[in-house]
Specification:
By secondary structure, the protein is an alpha/beta fold. The chain contains four helices and seven strands. It has one domain: Aldolase class I (TIM Barrel).
Length: 163
């Protein structure tokens, strides 16, 4: 898997201060995407042991609430295995930290993937400029949902996270 950046002390991509992994690869190609440089799965640098250590070291800090996977699309078919492995490792090593994941896929299309077991919050759906709203919290367009994954699994219907 390739990635473009690891952002430290991020406050825009989930609750609290976070570390964000920006992966390469996205087939959605949303018009007016903020990160078109991440679309090509071959762009960026290899997510290696050093990058993983950098990410995990950030999670050791008490004030870091969790990790956010974004991009690109962490659920691009070429990223799924590595992101799932990483999410499982984070949950095993840092059970008190939460995991947010941004994807252009809909919950209904990915709800049976293994990674869902490790995600706390999923922001789903492609960005749509027609319903863009800068006042929205944690998402760029009104069609996207900020989903509480555990409550959604428990109830059998999509439960949107309360602000």
């Amino acid at each position: 898997m390739k990635y473009h950046n690891i952002t430290h002390d991020d406050m825009l991509n989930g609750q609290g201060l976070r570390v964000v992994l920006w992966v390469s690869g996205c087939n959605h190609r949303c018009d007016e995407c903020q990160n078109p440089i991440t679309w090509d799965v071959n762009n960026g640098v290899e997510f290696d042991e050093d990058a993983e250590k950098e990410l995990l070291d950030d999670l050791k800090k008490n004030y870091v609430e969790g990790v956010t996977f974004s991009g690109g699309d962490p659920l691009h078919t070429q990223n799924r295995d590595e992101i799932t492995r990483l999410a499982k490792k984070i949950k095993d090593e840092f059970p008190s930290k939460d995991i947010w994941l941004y994807t252009g896929y809909l919950w209904e299309d990915i709800k049976d993937l293994e990674i869902v077991k490790y995600i706390d919050v999923l922001v789903d759906g492609p960005f749509k400029k027609e319903v863009k709203d800068i006042k929205l919290h944690w998402k760029g367009s009104a069609n996207q949902r900020v989903i509480d994954v555990k409550k959604t699994i428990d109830s059998g219907k999509v439960v949107v996270l309360e602000d």
